[in-house]
Amino acid sequence: MPDTAELSNPLREGIRLRRTPDPCAMVIFGASGDLTERKLIPALFYLSRERMLPAGFSVIGCARTPSTHEEFRREMTDAVKKFLHLTTESDAFVDGFGKGLHYIADDFSDPKAYEQVRAILERLDQERGTAGNRLFYLATPPSFFPVIVKHLGAVGLAKPKVAGKTWTRIVIEKPFGRSLESAGELNRAVTSVFDENQIYRIDHYLGKETVQNLLVFRFANGIFEPFWNRRYIDHVQIAVAEELGVESRGAYYEEAGLLRDMIQNHVLQLLSLVAMEPPATFEGTAVRDEKAKVLRALRPIPLGRVQDFTVRGQYAEGYVGGGKVPAYRTEPKVSPASNTETYAAFKFFIDNWRWADVPFYLRSGKRLPRRVSEISIQFRRVPHLLFRGADGIEPNILSIRIQPNEGISLKFCAKLPGTTMQIRPVEMEFRYGESFGAVPPTAYETLLLDCMLGDATLFNRDDAVELSWELVDPILDRWKQDGAKGLAFYAAGSWGPAEADAFIERDGREWQRL
Question: How many other CB atoms are found less than 10 A from the CB of residue 405?
């Protein structure tokens, strides 16, 4: 029976209303990596602590690093304590969670290792009651995805152990391809072994509490959806800013760049949630159908006009957080003559009845003043201004803050107290921390639980992945052809290049302050 303090936590109460997943075991390929230590195992422990995992839940870690069951348990126990900031009072519970962790040294290309995985899974079915349900998580570099998938199929682990009574699912981390061609090849490789309904392409942005709340905000309230269209909305801005530079990820970033790393997946997914039509039901197929329709309706940018609809930039040296930071070209494993973009801004149009002629401005960058992700919907100005001569009249703006300080605010105009007509913008705000008195679960906690429950609503489908690459590929091709031409530089610690400001100001608009 929960105590009074537990019952007073609305977030915890809401989570407890969800059903517990079926008994299952999870296999993490790439278990010695940073993602497992920082995100996956702490998220699983959180779910276990909140009684949201089934009894006997077990994890098998697979990686190339030599280790033992006991060593893996100690390392993951330390990771849980470190990244969840637990006190020593939680030692007993953490140790109990650790008993469900196992480890196999696997170079991912050795068929014998997968036989080992199968043997341990079958033993766990008997010893811990995992009931033949399996969740495979690919936390490896993308080059290993097809290899792992092929071997899982070869040893009979890709299909449910008992058809119709047990389940098998696979989670694939981004990047899902680096072009339309490679994404198509990867889709074909994975779907040759697993069915599409078994595949969960994870994008942690979609698991953030405020992103999910966007759907509730739109479709559970009667006052907003009637105005969610071209008649009332002037334009939409989506911004994802990062304070950090590339640091140790120079080699990866030289191959990826910001467009592949952020825009193709995270930002376009946010756009599809803002612009989608109401689904018939709140379930995976219906929601993902509507998101895919948005991506199909996005107007492609012609190869000859890429410069009219995009800006790309790269950070020079500057100051962030009071300290001097180096230019991108001097970061480790980065070419001194690199033309890779670390900042990008775009203007897209959606060719449908709801959004015709409404511009969607997207921007993202590294080494900006602070880490923040926000969606801003700016409404049209009033058609006739009654208060002539009054200053301070600004358009209404609805801001949805994804991180940090998750929440929603609405800016509107109000009269200042006094005998003269002075108008100033004011804000109504909702913040998760203040309203619910608790920190919301992390994205990985939400998404891992959804995987076990078989809810694919917040995961990418194969058609959405390929549609986003169709939009991005021509831009990448043009930037590659242009080389250094059109690459704008900005000081680290600024909000991007001056060219990006001029880009939106040409339309008589300006970037929202973050």
Answer: 13
